[in-house]
Write a structure and sequence with these properties.
alpha+beta; 5 helices; 2 strands; elongated
Amino acid sequence: MNQEQAKEYTPWYRISEPEALQALLESAGAQQVQVFAETDSHALSTPADWWTMVMGGGIRGTIDQLDPETIKRIRSTSLEFLHTQKIQALDSEVLYAVGCK
């Protein structure tokens, strides 16, 4: 799957930029829309914390569409990478929006 296909497959790409989120809300009739971006770091006590984040977030829908062997391979490969690279935190960017309808 190339990057363009991934964007079509994962709906959150449509709102990954503040301007796109604002446009989406305004197209639904929201007014006085304000979008705020926040960047933070999430500590990982162990690499397994990453998998907990994956399965508790929006990407779970993508994971759930994979066959069990592929899921097992992705989990194993990712946890091994986090371990060998000694990754102890993940940066994330979140968009918050408010508006009136």
